[in-house]
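Board notes (copied after class):
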Amino acid sequence: MAIAFDQEITGTAGTQGNSPLSSPSFTPAAAGEVALVCALDQTQNGTATMTITGTGGSFTNINFDYSGSASTSQAYCLALSGAAQTVTAADSGAYVLLVGILYSGVGSLTTSHVVRTAPGTGTGAITGNSVVVPTGSVLIAICIDTGDNSTIVNANGTLRGGGNGSAFYVTTEFDGTGVAVTPEFTDATNGATDLYIVVQFLLSPPAGSSAPLYYRSKQLIYLEE
């Protein structure tokens, strides 16, 4: 089964509010889907570590600070239940920006992130990390404006969330062809002043799920006269 997008779990404009902050209730298309989530402390109070949890499975959190005192969690759950559920981000005293998306057909994943400060207003000025995406794998990149401005658009990739120019984040997808991919985003309004986070998830299919190889043999028959 190929890796496939299912749904956003935090609405097309994301979810934001005071900590602890929960997503709207969502139901995966099937059990075993992967949740990819990012939450950040937009108030930059630095009083605690951002933690993402879920009612439908166990989450792995990768934490980092994006400005020295603002906690962020890039998190994932590799096997959600098929029931209605929510995800929650918590950081004491924080105003939280929360983004999440679901995919099916994933066997494993790796993560990365990068912080871009005032990258400029040119097309594709906000860049993620360059990653080789093997055939059959999928790269997901989520760009978040930590200033909560709704002016980001994607410069490449397939739009999968956020909505260009209508949310504080944009999510893009890149199907693997065996070459390096660098996600690119544009903020023509605030790119010269704002600070951006790009979190990435490289999704790989389950081991042994590649298309099988077939070999054709030829039998040579010799006739004696």
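Comment from the instructor: Residues 4-204 form one domain. The mean pLDDT is 90.
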